[in-house]
Amino acid sequence: MKHAQPFVHRNLPRLLLQAREAVMVHTRPSLRDHGLSDQQWRVLRVLGEHAEEAEGIETGRVAREAFLLGPSLTGVLARMERDGLITRARCPQDARRTVVRATEAGLTKVQALSQTIEAHYAWMEQQLGKAHLKALYELLDGMIALEAVAPETDIEEE
Fold this sequence. Notes:
The protein is mainly α. It has one domain: Arc Repressor Mutant, subunit A, CATH 1.10.10. Helices cover about 65% and strands about 10% of the residues. It has helices at about 10-35, 40-50, 60-65, 70-80, 105-130, 130-150, and strands at about 55-60, 85-90, 100. Strands 1-3-2 form a 3-stranded antiparallel β-sheet. A hairpin with a 7-residue loop joins strand 2 (about 85-90) and strand 3 (about 100). Helix 5 packs across helix 6 (about 130-150). The longest helix has 25 residues, at about 105-130. It is globular and about 60 Å long. It starts with 11 loop residues before the first helix and ends in a 9-residue tail after the last helix. The relative contact order is 0.11.
């Protein structure tokens, strides 16, 4: 018995994961050279992007921006604090919350890795072309914005 193909569109979540992995193949060796996991790097990158915020970043914000679930973030932060990459403290405005900031050692890793990662992005830009890479960023930003305001449906994620 022959079945009709039930899907018209390609598997977008899988393609996005494949694209992420294709990029991370170049990034992971540098992360490992610096003793970092993917998750630790995502946290350090967020903290590096907000290093000017002297009071630190609330852990919920770190979780959202680094795409880590709370329980996973707790373990990642514990290891990073043990390794001297971050500090944690109570939020000055709300003692029930915790804020995180990168230490000097953590920011040094961000600086070192940013050079490697930016070099890879420059290579991608050279290979794809500046216009194509810009278009990719714009398409991804558009998709994120579209899905952020999409009405709730009963359709489950793939």
